[in-house]
Design a protein that fits this description.
The complex is a heterodimer of chains A (about 290) and B (about 160).
Chain A: E1 7-9, H1 14-24, E2 28-31, H2 37-42, E3 50-53, E4 65-67, E5 70-74, H3 79-83, H4 86-91, H5 94-98, H6 105-108, H7 113-119, H8 125-130, E6 134-141, E7 144-149, H9 150-153, E8 154-156, E9 159-160, E10 167-174, E11 180-187, E12 197-205, E13 211-219, E14 226-227, H10 229-235, H11 242-255, H12 266-288
Helix pairs in contact in A: 10-11, 11-12
Chain B: E1 2-9, E2 12-19, H1 24-31, E3 50-53, E4 56-59, E5 72-74, H2 87-94, H3 104-117, H4 123-130, H5 141-155
Parallel strand pairs in B: 1-5
Antiparallel strand pairs in B: 1-2, 3-4, 3-5
Classes of the chains: A alpha+beta (about 290), B alpha+beta (about 160).
Keywords (chain B): 2Fe-2S, Iron, Iron-sulfur, Metal-binding, Oxidoreductase
Pathway (chain B): Alkaloid degradation; nicotine degradation
GO molecular function, one term (chain B): oxidoreductase activity
Chain lengths: ~290, ~160
């Protein structure tokens, strides 16, 4: 189908974009990569009066930046750009592992990292990764700026902390401590499909091989990426040995309460969560030796 | 609102009017009469409308024409060289990589972009390159063979 009628705006600066959002608020939607919004417009699942296209707000928003202990991903960084950034891969290789599993190259060439987060599909890969790294969502509006962490940013199915007049200007990620290893695993029925379940995991180990910090999150099992705190708890203090992995698998299985749908039953999703937690931890363990 | 936009398509500059809600695919087909770009699903899943925008393969049904103002576009009409099939098109023909041909323009543009980035070494990589396009007539084996054959010729 074709999209309904709207007024297209292409502001040339962040301030101009924010002014448009302040003026049109509820009747406006931000267009970045358009790989989720335009299908919804074409299906007329979404109808907007004003489309604020941020693609021309400035080249400074197009590339990831690694400075000191922070990786910054501004609003127009395409998924493909992050996937191929050697500079980011050197400090946060989890993105290079997860991004090839996000849709297809043709989608990642346009789709932005911030856009995927702002869209907040419960089965999407990037919000799940953002839930295990130390991420801060920087938000701007004509009223000012604010920062929100991942736990507060993702609120519900397709719902974030963003107000109608706000724009996600960048996600800032703290470079993990030395000894941190991450893994991303998902199961999808076809290449490029949304994951039935995806799991991102991060573990920091000290010199003796003992885990001092761990985060595990799953997609596709709840309205937002779900942190698996009980599974994290059994990994912390362990050496990610077989016993700890088995305990984490059981804890993950017990912690999720997925909904069944046409793509997979609830029980299938629960089982996948456990299996993917095991695979992610096994990969983290493998990296140690 | 309607505004004039200027795009370069296969090396030739065009200026035409575009409504705010006109997709780039419809702009190519209806305003420029370049009907080689096909529209299947119109929501970014089937890949039939894939074209190359500023060097990257994208879904032209998921871009608005207004967004392409000033862009360099490549479509299936630009592939043939002097009225002859180019290497990739010939490989599609030789390997029976199409049947009805509806999806073919999208496949050709996706594969063109991928082969410029580097060689496609094996079947697994070929299937990855092809995964963003859907063919509903035939299988994908002919397509895999065509991609591997062209990659070998281009990159050896």
């Amino acid at each position: 189908m074709k999209p309904g009628r709207f007024t297209y705006h292409a502001p040339r600066s962040l301030d101009a974009a924010l002014a448009l959002l302040a003026e049109h608020g509820d009747e406006a939607k931000v267009l970045a990569g358009g790989q989720s919004l335009v299908p919804m417009l074409n299906f007329r699942l979404a109808q907007v009066d004003h489309l604020v296209d941020i693609n021309r707000i400035g080249p400074e928003f197009a590339g990831p930046k690694v400075t000191g202990d922070t990786v910054t991903i501004p609003a127009l960084v395409r998924q493909r750009v992050l996937e191929r950034s050697a500079e980011v891969a050197a400090v946060l290789p989890v993105f290079a592992a997860a991004l090839p599993q996000v849709a297809h190259p043709q989608i990642r060439n346009r789709g932005t990292v911030c856009g995927s987060c702002a869209h907040a599909d419960p089965a999407a890969e990037l919000p799940t990764v953002m839930s295990v790294v130390d991420s801060t969502f920087r938000i701007a509006s004509a009223r000012g700026t604010r920062e929100v962490d991942a736990a507060d940013f993702f609120q519900f199915h397709l719902t974030t902390a963003l107000e109608p007049d706000e724009l996600l200007t960048e996600v800032a990620i703290r470079v993990p401590q030395p000894g941190t290893r991450m893994a991303f695993k998902e199961f999808a029925t076809r290449r490029g499909d949304f994951a039935l379940v995806a799991v991102a995991a991060s573990a920091t180990v000290d010199e003796s091989g003992t885990v001092t910090a761990c985060r595990i999150a799953a997609a596709g099992v709840a309205p937002t990426p779900q942190r698996l705190h009980d599974a994290e708890a059994v990994v912390i203090g362990s050496t990610v040995d077989d016993e700890a992995i088995a305990a984490a698998e059981a804890a993950a299985s017990a912690a999720v309460d997925p909904t069944g749908d046409i793509h997979a039953t609830a029980e299938h999703r629960r089982r996948l969560t456990a299996v993917l937690v095991r695979r992610a931890l096994a990969e983290i363990k493998g990296d140690q030796s | 609102m309607t505004d004039n936009i200027t795009v370069t398509v296969n090396g030739k500059q065009h200026t035409a009017t575009a409504d705010d809600r006109l997709t780039l695919a419809d702009f190519l087909r209806e305003k420029l009469r370049l009907t080689g770009t096909h529209l299947g699903c119109e929501h970014g899943v089937c890949g039939a409308c894939t074209i190359i925008v500023d060097g990257s393969a994208v879904r032209s049904c998921l871009m608005l024409a207004r967004q392409a103002d000033g862009a360099e576009l490549e479509t299936v009409e630009g592939l043939a060289e002097g009225g002859k099939l180019n290497r990739l098109q010939q490989a599609f023909k030789d390997n029976y990589a199409l049947q009805c041909g509806f999806c073919t323009p999208g496949f050709l543009m996706s594969v063109t972009a991928a082969l410029r980035e580097g060689p496609v070494r094996d079947e697994d990589e070929a299937r990855d390159v092809l995964s963003g396009n859907i063919c509903r007539c035939t299988g994908y084996q002919g397509l895999v063979d065509a991609v591997l054959e062209t990659s070998k010729e281009m990159h050896s």
